[in-house]
Amino acid sequence: MVLNMGKPVGLPKVDKKKRKRKKRHKKRGKHKKKHNNNKTKSKKQPKLILLNSTRVEKVKDYFKTIHKDLFYQLAKKTNYQLYMRMGKEKPVFLVNQKMHHLASSLRKKVDIKHFAISIGFFKARRTRAGYDENFYLSYEGGRFLYNFMKRKAQETLREVHKVLLDNQGEKAFLYGRNISLDHVKSKTEHLVKRKIIFVLNQRKEYLGIALLKVKLIGSDELEERGRYIRKHSNSDNFILSLLN
Prior knowledge:
Helix content: 25-40%
Strand order of the largest sheet: 1-2-3-4-5
Radius of gyration: 30 Å
Strand content: 25-35%
Mean pLDDT: 76
Largest sheet: 5 strands, antiparallel
Shape: elongated
Structural class: alpha+beta
């Protein structure tokens, strides 16, 4: 057997550049893991949240388009909390005290999509400064407010804008058509633009909510002043374009 007694074989040279690259890749991998962990944490956050003070003020401003004291009356005579579900559509729910305790315990465990009274929703609207988020009353929200005023705030109900339709007007309104004031049986002189109007049948039962609009001469478009009303509801059969 012959042994190689020549020069000892040295260790391979360490490439410092490769070491640096490996360290960088490790750091990037850790950063990605942290980022993914943050994503999973954010997914676990409840989608049903209590309305913050900014959004509550927007709800108050909207209620003023119905009656200046309506929000105050609702807060004084009932004990409700306002919740909102985060997402593309942002429905707002009116929740009583018992349901509020249930919601606070369930919302972290269960993805609650619908809860209590669906009173309206928040929707982004484009403005000159960018996008602004506003509150809009739903069909169900209008029904709830009308029934609340009938039971607990009759004086407020007497002062809000409301119209009674004849049979033809009622049918057309339920189909989402524009209603000429010829089909309105009640007085209309007090109606003004930018005020929510409660639309009722001849038995004074709630049909929906509307705004006063006008049909321009030679055009099918409507503007928000004049002697036409248009149906607004959250149903697919109707148009959601309430003006505040």
